[in-house]
Amino acid sequence: QSALTQPPSASGSPGQSVTISCTATGSDVGGYNFVSWYQHHPGKAPKLLIYEFRKRPSGVPARFSGSKSDNAASLTVSGLQAEDEADYYCSSYVDDIHVVFGGGTKLTVL
Amino acid sequence: QLQLQESGPGLVKPSETLSLTCTVSGGSISSTAYYWGWIRQPPGKALEWIGTIFYSRSTYYNPSLKSRVTISVDTSKNQFSLKLNSVTVADTAVYYCARHLSTVRSPFDDWGLGTLVTVSS
Question: Which of B13, B7, B26 minimizes the C-alpha distance to B96?
């Protein structure tokens, strides 16, 4: 079964940078061609931050950036702010399975 | 400004059918430019994709839910709907409707606020 694995938690102090990884398991990463990242504050609608590994929708601050390496995708939040404390999910389209979400990472701003 | 609003019963009995509707405003469900989907989040757990529909022409379902799910479109009301049958307590979740950026391969760029559905007798 293909899946996307994320660390359950991450943290950083205001102004610092934090990177969250998203690793493909059970399948060739080549099958994960459309990785995206969402920010989710509890009780609110998830917000698209990054798509196709590194593209930002209009209105998303440049301090949110995405990258890809080997079997993993990463989201980096630079210049951490208190409002960045939220859950972050990676997601991808995978042939035959269609849409897959990672297990989510809770980001704490210390 | 596109807006999506989920509606439906907040309480469903085990073995019955969960039915939700997503009303779209500020955009047309009939547009051939977009696909529309349902996602859920059980309490304390991760997001889970349920399925996606394209203008009544194509549907895509999560393999783990496929035998119980039906997604349909009502163009006259600019709505799309979710039916999940034979529900159990494991189906208790916040259910979101959302629009793909373009095709089913693309991410969801607009989401509803979600609606909590509890499965309990």
Answer: B7
- Phi/psi at B89 (5° precision): -60, -25
- Unique residue bearing structure tokens 């980001």: A107
**Which residues on adjacent β-strands are paired with residue A101?**
A91
| B55 vs B39: CA distance, rounded Å | 18
Evaluate whether B19 touches B44 at the Cβ level (below 8 Å).
Answer: no
User: B49 — contact with chain A (CB < 8 Å)?
Assistant: yes
- The mean predicted confidence, pLDDT, of chain B is 95
For A61, residues 6+ apart whose C-beta sits below 8 A from its C-beta are none
Q: How many C-beta atoms surround the C-beta of residue A85 within 10 A?
A: 15
Q: Give the one of B60, B107, B113 whose C-beta lies nearest to A45's C-beta.
A: B113
Per the CB < 8 Å rule, is A100 touching B49? yes
pLDDT tens-digit map of A10-59: 999 999 999 999 988 765 445 666 899 999 999 999 999 999 989 999 99
Q: Which chain A residue has its CA at the smallest distance from B49's CA?
A: A99
Interval B70-82: pLDDT, tens: 999 999 999 999 9
Q: Which residue of B106, B110, B116 is the best one to mutate when testing the A interface, meaning the one whose CB has the most A CBs within 10 A?
A: B106
